[in-house]
């Protein structure tokens, strides 16, 4: 017999309240998915006796929704939340006219860039994306960026909770009275795995929140400064470009063309400087792997939380809760990363400004608007700071742009673009402080390397002569 009320509204309310503790804000989504597959949620509470195959499908779905995937960031949670946040303020489908206008702007941008840099076009397709499409395309990159810290954080969370409640009590984190069906169910989950799963879900929620918020701010696929696409492409998000253009003195067409030039310049750099992508991602990973997590701060954060209430625990773990501490090595890596991001932004800013100057009457104020926007950052960038302890902001982009402008003035566009010929030639903080001395330091470095090469050649030559005499 059923142990649920006969009234349908009362029954639905009781089921929703019982599952709220497990799924929180996703309860309605879970119920909708179950019903769409012909599964009756009342079966969990004595509402009937479904056949074994139906029950197995039900429990498989519940376990997929409650447990994490194999990674340190729950990809499904991140994806679902990012999509929700992306459309929270509206995400209308692009019209054919919007898409054509955006892709045509990207094509024009390539022609203008051809006149000011020898770096060729990226060679990829030109896209016009909605916010949701941007999320779908870039979310895997964000998950990879935070994965090293997320893995350490999930292990730390499991350690803290085990110390607080003990292994014997960890199994009680589910909803009291939730049945365990023959053949396995939620009650059979390994406690340690549940803790790692919870940490993965927390990071999934934060990544989803940040990526979804970014989807409402970005103009393309490259303007956060780090490559986010696996394959070459140029992208515009016309909805965001249009919102940015509102209230500006510049007409929309000018704003869109300016954003298109910046996007195409970024894409050229990331595609045709083969070591740059690995250099940026390597610095992010090096920084993330070296982060230490303050277990005492984490323990303080979850102290007093009802361990049988997953929703309360999830709330306690939202935000900057993992006590991330930077070592001196971390600070050095962060400085290198910020310098690299500034150089990317500075080069793009300088090249784009040169390319659009003959064509766009409002190019100068547009450049200043973008500079201020990038310098200030946004809520999503602050969220990523709480995730991995770093802000993806080019703090010294003005200094970097001044360096590239100086190189053009003294050596032409070829000198500006030659900076990207090899990672050893990349300017450092000293060069941002003193652009005029960069060329002299480069020459001194080249002469030093030349002397070393000559000495090594002499050594090897003499060694070869000895071998001949033998």
Automatic annotation (TrEMBL):
NCBIfam families: putative hydrolase
GO molecular function terms noted in the UniProt entry: metallopeptidase activity
Recorded superkingdom: Bacteria
Source species of the chain: Isoptericola chiayiensis
Extent of Basic and acidic residues compositional bias: 439-452
Region (Disordered): 416-453
Matching SUPFAM superfamilies: Metalloproteases ('zincins'), catalytic domain
Keyword line: Hydrolase, Metalloprotease, Protease
The keyword rRNA-binding appears for this protein: no
Pfam families xref list: Zincin_2
InterPro entries given in the database record: Zinicin_2 (IPR018766), Zinicin_2_N (IPR042271)
Full protein name: Zinc-dependent metalloprotease
Lineage per the UniProt record: Bacteria, Bacillati, Actinomycetota, Actinomycetes, Micrococcales
UniProt KW Mitochondrion keyword: no
């Amino acid at each position: 017999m059923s142990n649920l009320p006969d009234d349908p509204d009362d029954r639905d309310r009781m089921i929703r309240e019982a599952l709220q503790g497990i799924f929180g804000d996703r309860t309605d989504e879970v119920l909708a998915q179950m019903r769409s597959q012909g599964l009756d949620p009342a079966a969990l509470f004595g509402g009937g006796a479904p056949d074994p195959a139906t029950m197995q499908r039900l429990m498989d779905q519940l376990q997929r929704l409650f447990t994490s995937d194999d990674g340190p960031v729950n990809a499904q949670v991140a994806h679902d939340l990012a999509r929700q946040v992306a459309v929270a303020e509206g995400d209308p489908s692009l019209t054919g006219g919007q898409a054509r206008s955006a892709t045509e702007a990207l094509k024009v941008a390539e022609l203008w860039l051809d006149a000011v840099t020898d770096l060729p076009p990226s060679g990829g397709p030109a896209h016009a994306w909605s916010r949701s499409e941007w999320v779908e395309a870039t979310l895997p990159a964000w998950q990879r960026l935070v994965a090293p810290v997320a893995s350490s954080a999930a292990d730390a969370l499991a350690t803290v909770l085990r110390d607080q409640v003990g292994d014997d009590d960890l199994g009680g984190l589910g909803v009291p009275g939730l049945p365990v069906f023959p053949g396995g169910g939620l009650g059979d989950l390994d406690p340690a795995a549940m803790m790692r799963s919870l940490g993965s879900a927390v990071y999934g929620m934060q990544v989803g929140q940040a990526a979804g918020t970014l989807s409402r701010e970005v103009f393309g696929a490259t303007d956060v400064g780090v490559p986010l696409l696996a394959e070459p492409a140029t992208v515009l998000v016309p909805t965001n470009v249009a919102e940015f253009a509102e209230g500006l003195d510049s007409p929309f067409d000018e704003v869109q063309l300016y954003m298109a030039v910046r996007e195409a310049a970024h894409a050229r750099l990331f595609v045709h400087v083969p070591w740059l992508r690995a250099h940026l991602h390597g610095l992010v990973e090096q920084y993330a792997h070296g982060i230490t997590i303050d277990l005492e701060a984490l323990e303080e954060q979850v102290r007093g939380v009802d361990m049988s209430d997953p929703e309360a625990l999830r709330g306690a773990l939202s935000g900057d809760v993992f006590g991330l501490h930077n070592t001196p090595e971390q600070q050095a890596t962060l400085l290198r990363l910020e310098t690299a991001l500034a150089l990317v932004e500075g080069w793009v800013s300088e090249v784009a400004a040169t390319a659009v100057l003959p064509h766009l009457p409002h190019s100068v104020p547009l450049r200043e608007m973008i500079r201020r926007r990038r310098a200030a950052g946004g809520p999503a960038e602050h969220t990523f700071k709480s995730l991995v302890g770093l802000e993806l902001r080019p703090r010294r982009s003005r200094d970097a742009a001044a360096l590239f402008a100086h190189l053009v003035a003294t050596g032409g566009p070829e000198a500006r673009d030659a900076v990207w010929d090899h990672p050893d030639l990349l300017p450092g903080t000293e060069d941002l402080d003193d652009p005029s001395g960069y060329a002299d330091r480069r020459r001194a470095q080249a002469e030093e390397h030349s002397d070393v090469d000559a000495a090594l050649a002499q050594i090897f030559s003499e060694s070869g002569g000895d071998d001949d005499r033998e």
